Records
---
Amino acid sequence: MLLGLALGVCLTGAWLWRSSSRTTATHRVLVVAPESSQQTDVNLGLETLMSDHFEVLAGLTVTHAPSIPSPAELRKLPADLALFRFQGRQEGGKLALTTQWTTAPDLLAGRPWRWDVQPPMDPGQAMETWVARWPLDRRHRIRAELYPRDPGRFWELLRAMAIRDDREATSRLADTQALAEAEPMCATAWATLGDHLYRSLWVDPAQAGIGLNSRTHKAFQRAVDLVPGYPRATFLWSLMLTDTGNQDLALRALDEAMHLRPRVPDLFLGFTYAGRTSGLLAGAHSAMVRREALLAPFSAASTWTVETTNLYLGDWAAFEEDLRQTAALRVDAGVLFYQGYLALLKGDRKTALARMEAAGTAQGFSPFQDLSRVYRALLEGRKEDGLAELRRIDEVRGKLRIPDGELTFKQAEAYSLLGDGGRAVDCATRAFVQGFSCARWYESSPFLETMRAHPRWPTLRRNIRERQAVLEGTFPPASFEP
């Protein structure tokens, strides 16, 4: 009796929330993560799965927070934002799901969250019930599935989506592949397989088997075929395509997704990355500004990359602010490297050395660790050691199946700083072949002065400008806008 009354109150609250929310359309959702004691694989995977539902079915701007914002932060939140939190629990093969909704004005006024407590159900039924009750307009219909119909494979998918470590994702590839093949109409299974394959490109491509690039491409393609404009799959696919020098295809996939769901910030992050590495700096900057507007008042710092668009535009002050925002989110080898890189650009060799030393010993796995040791040798006057380390990096990176032309370009700058113009132009040519064709930075980077004195530089410069001109004709700045 009491349980029935409680469920009735929850359903009434959900209905009242749905009715009252019609006055102000919800375009954004802030997902507040479960408390650390509840951070199980179930909830980690559910957070990603639910975010996919918000983006795919409602086209919302989704942001995440580890806790409820402070009153001062709540006052800054836009009127079209709802706060959402959840807790999932596996009971046998069933999913018990509790969800809560509110708004910033309601929290500030001391009103309680609107609760919806679902009893344990088969996972598919639980997800359908959740979507049926949410206080949002469902703007998109899809023919495929966002979760497996088989209850056992539902939990397998959540465990796969909960993986945050690249090496674990690589070691579990066989299981993730089998899951996708067993659930051929489940778009999230294919997106998760593509995600894990993409990570393995960086970590251990040999372990992933033959045809890794093709398998990664096909997994993301399958996810997007099932759900046109699927934001998470399209974003990750665009990163993989950009890293392998296929910016043209990346920009086309992003364009299709953006026009279907123009409020998803990660799509504009993909535009910025593909655009800046192609030299389409006006479009990249436009996409970056659009993403910042969607995420405001939250920080737009990316968990994926260090934003270098302002660097290539020559706005060092703006680039320094981008670095500051990223460092507030995380401090890893990439952030430390670019802090040292900027200090060196500004002539502050002492700070540059300290940052490169820290980057070289930072935890985790990053190619910036090796590259920072090259710059450290340069700053310490050990040019021969620096050149030897660069040649070692060349040998290792030559075996990788995801070249990342932007990183190769940083190696070219290092060769040039170390006085080897011939190897610098060789490396810069490889960066160009790998897709990095930002003509402005090739021509203006202070670190490439030695290379630009080399007799082969004019030919490389002409090739870069020709490719950039083609891309500029295909993707004018307006194509980066909704």
---
Amino acid sequence: MNTYQIKKTPISNMIDDNIVSVKNLLKDCDDVVYRQFKIGGDKGRDVFLFYVDGMAEKELLNNFVLKPLMLMARMVDPTFEEIKDEIYEASKVAAMSVTDFKESDNIEDSVLAVLSGDTAIFVDGENKALVIATKFFPVRGVQEPTAETVIRGSRDGFTETIRMNTALVRRRIRDPRFKIKQKQIGVRSKTDIAIMYIDDIVDKQIVDEVIKKLDSINIDAILDSGYIQQYLEDRPLSLFPQVQTTERPDVVAAAVYEGRVGILVDNSPFALIVPVTLTAFFQSPEDYYSRSIVVSFVRVLRVLCGAIAILAPSLYIAITSFSPGIIPTKLALSIAATREGVPFPAFIEAIIMELTLELLREAGVRLPRPIGSTIGIVGGLVIGQAAVSAGIVSPIMVIVVAITAIASFSIPNYEVSAAFRLVRFILMVLASIYGLYGIVLGSIMVLIHLCNLKSFGVPFLAPIAPFEFSDIKDSLIVRMPWKYMIKRPKHIKPKDEIRQVGDENAEGQ
């Protein structure tokens, strides 16, 4: 249990005591601006206002808070003398022309609101503070997502501002049953978290489990949604992610319409979606905007690419080292000829090329964008050609590694692609020891693990294992036309299974 607990200090009727308490809490915070003034002239009530410079909108404060309280309050009826005992209520109800404010009864909550971009006002003789919504900190504008390339569909992506992100999703779900519950996580950071779902669609057990896991988080700071993701996963040591991440609001909206739960984290442009299945990681948002026959072909291609990304190097090792007789004689002789003079066994050869590829991939990510792409292409060509010319690796090994890399790039989700890369190394080790038997054994172990994996109670391999016939219309390799997908996915257990009124014959029940 985190021992850093904040004791709540009630707001005093004496404004000087409140000023001392605030300044003690914000000692050495030079970006905090303090302003003392009077309501009702020189003999009026003392008022204390403070905010963080750079996070509060000064124009709003000057024109709609300070000006009405300091100047206009003395120019209209009733006079200060007539309402001096009710000046706090008069200021709240009639003086300040702001749309959003709330009251606070303790110093710590008032300071927390100010550190979030709001402005707090204390009035002498009152044991409450007015907290005015004046958030105006620097934000990045809505731009096209960088991690998820858009071919067809909306080109707006999430930003680091949670309220802007909730608006992007709300714009797509104009339903009063769409709920957004906000929480604060992080003992010190007090990071805002938004939980989004449609009340009459989502399975309430999923929502309750999400809230329970979020409430159990007791850490100093949440700086990105990746922190939350690791707490939400039932098996965080698994190679495969059990939470989906996305930068695209349309992906979150589509998931919420299906009965899933979306989670937004302030300061992070990546949203989280639960529950999730392996099928969802192989799907792209463009799949639902294009014709079904084309999408089905592309999905089959992605599955084949996933198999190649996992199996290609290990199959090369197993065949060349243990079972050359299973391939045609001419091909076997050709491979043997290309490997003549290579001083390393096939396993070491494959490891050298795979690690080189991983180094190039990591270097391309870390370098500035204009240089990174050049390093990836030129580095791959130069190093591959040099390695072949030096006789360190065979040309066929370069081809296998290149095909493997291209196949891994076709997987839409980066985290699943990274998991496949790790599985690929495990299968390469098994293939170097047991040959084809090692590949089969490793594949069975991976499948057993995937069958046991769950995301918030939903099997990771659904709707294939367990098999759900009605969900096959939108699965790993098939996407039927929209008019046939009348029901929401059953494996998510939505309360409202019907998403469109359709023809029973078309539904094929």
---
Amino acid sequence: MSKTKASTPVTEDLKEILSHFLIEGSVASVKAYGSGHIHDTYYVQNQSLTLPDYLLQRINHHVFRNVPQLMDNIELVTAHLRKKLAAMPGREPDKEVLTLIPTRQHRSYFEDPAGNFWRLYLLLQGTRSYDLVENTQQAYEGGKAFGLFQALLADMDAHLLHESIPDFHNVEHRLKQFEAALVKDRVGRVKAVQPEIAFVKQRAYEMTALLRLGREGKLPLRITHNDTKFNNVLLDRQDKAQCVIDLDTVMPGFVAYDYGDAIRTTAVTSPEDEENLDRIDIDLGLFRSFTQGFLEETHASLTDAEIASLSPGLTLLPFIMGLRFLTDYIDGDHYYKIHAPDHNLQRARAQFRLVEVLEEKSGLLQSIIQEIYQACQHTDTQKIS
């Protein structure tokens, strides 16, 4: 996302920040943690082995410009998930939902004198995440995790949440940004990307179908995660899904957004910026496994229109990502970090090739979705009878 990040504070400053939160025990050490590009994250080790450790985050308010609204979303969603899980026999809400540690003023975040925003989570011990899916069992667990997340929030009013990043998956908004970049042609690149521009314009209307269905009241607005990468699922020591994390982009949306983005990052055989377009394909085993897990959890709460929307969601999300990469390239590479002069163009071409692959296989993929959905419904019928 944004390239902007504040300078790294020293440990003593971090201990002072932590003093504003209601933590148990006392701090033994604070160390930089993880490889996230948005927030600064620190592992807080407790002096007592019997008391919990924590994760401290400085929220990037250049990306998330209204931190109070962002944290309000997370508070509402985690409270709802916790309540639903607590009513289900055998579930462990403290392990399956992120826990925010309040400040001494009983708020979910602390704003320091320099205008930085901080939050503190309970560390979920014994969990791990993977940047890449290694096998079909992991894909299935990823599907179950995001599916359960959707199902538990299905009865929560999406209008209660704020848009933490306005128009994040709004393809009409992204197309307007694209058209504006074409008009400006700030660095003189439009002439060199005519095939990519034609690709976008050829599909522009078709890609707005889900938005139009939503406006017509045919597709319900849900609470969606909007960043369903596999590494946003924590797995336990047995590689079973335990907790969905990174709730910053949780806001109103369509189920197809989460499903399409998950498949884009779970079942594709090559990196997001693959240079050799011939290598880009969908691993049908991973696709089937993720879809199985996802629909096992969601099929009872989704409408027929939502099931039908999953297939167009497969092409919409890589189209949006390709469109964003292409727009940034035309505009002079201001948004995404690049590692070569044409990196954003390479990314756009890879995402557009993925759209083509998904279009070519749409009939097969749709039949797999329908087959799994019907099997889930049949299983429910057998349980009732």
